[in-house]
Amino acid sequence: MTDPQHDAPHPDHGRDRYAHPSSIAQLRAVAQPDEVRSRANAEHWTAALYLRDVSPYLTWVLLKTRVSANQVTGLMILVGWSVAAALLIPGIWGAALALVLGQLQMLVDCSDGEVARWRGTRSPAGVFLDKVGHYTTEGLIPIALGVRAATWPVHGADWMWTTIGCALGLVIVLNKALNDMVHVARANSGLEKLVDRRDATTAPSGRRLASLRRVARFLPFHRLYHSVELSILAFVFALIGLVIGHPLTDRVLVGALLPLAVIATAGHFLAIMSSKRVRA
């Protein structure tokens, strides 16, 4: 999930941007408008499930300070990197810490946009920093999973697992970049910006791809490559590892994720090329 600050409406005109909201309800009205809650792609499922209910309380505290929305995004980046760092701790405790930090990253990610909407400080720099945070976090976590699978210190054939982790990180970043490539291509072609709403249709036009899209809804492995899902998987496999042992479970996880990521990226590319998103 990203919370791009440039999509946000300005707060009430004439209000001091550093004024504190009088209530959580007022903060929600400005910082969580319908166009934010109804986004199809930029809103992660954890936000819809519970984070948007919790984030205004963190935003409330942040608005009592002079911290800027971009500084909150900087905090989100650091928390995201910490998810990868936590996975370097062997066993269940590193995975458990990564699980908590993954949720915290998404919570802070909600709040940076809310701070920007309340203060009316939306900017391209905020969007850029948000992208940096998600790209780097979701590139570093697979590398950490590879090191975790190889065990430390790495030697001999164990380097294969770090290579698999790096390859997984590369494929995940490429898959993420495909969406941004669509926006760049449309902007360079003079086309209007895509609307990020659940009721907006961008389905592939071919029958076969449409059928594959329906199958993907039942087997949504293409959604496993966000920092939240990766941290959840790492924790689940760490629990299994308490029974059958480490690093076997870590190696199974990394080894399975790479081919699935390649399939997901190829499918994503084909879906984009066959959709109206890249049609004039």
State the main characteristics.
about 280 residues; mainly alpha
Low-confidence stretches: 6-11
CATH class: Mainly Alpha
Domains, number: 1
Helical proportion, percent range: 55-70%
Order of helices and strands: HHHHHHHHHH
The proportion of residues in beta strands is under 5%
Protein described:
- With 280 residues, this protein is mainly alpha-helical.
- The protein has one domain: CDP-alcohol phosphotransferase transmembrane (TM) domain (Four Helix Bundle (Hemerythrin (Met), subunit A), Up-down Bundle).
- The protein contains ten helices and no strands.
- It has helices at residues 24-31, 34-37, 45-62, 69-86, 91-119, 124-150, 159-188, 207-218, 227-244, 248-273.
- The protein is globular.
What are the SSEs and their pairings?
Elements: H1 24-31, H2 34-37, H3 45-62, H4 69-86, H5 91-119, H6 124-150, H7 159-188, H8 207-218, H9 227-244, H10 248-273
Helix pairs in contact: 3-5, 4-5, 4-6, 5-9, 6-7, 6-9, 6-10, 7-10, 9-10
Summarize the structure.
With 280 residues, the chain is an all-alpha fold. It is built from 10 helices and no strands.
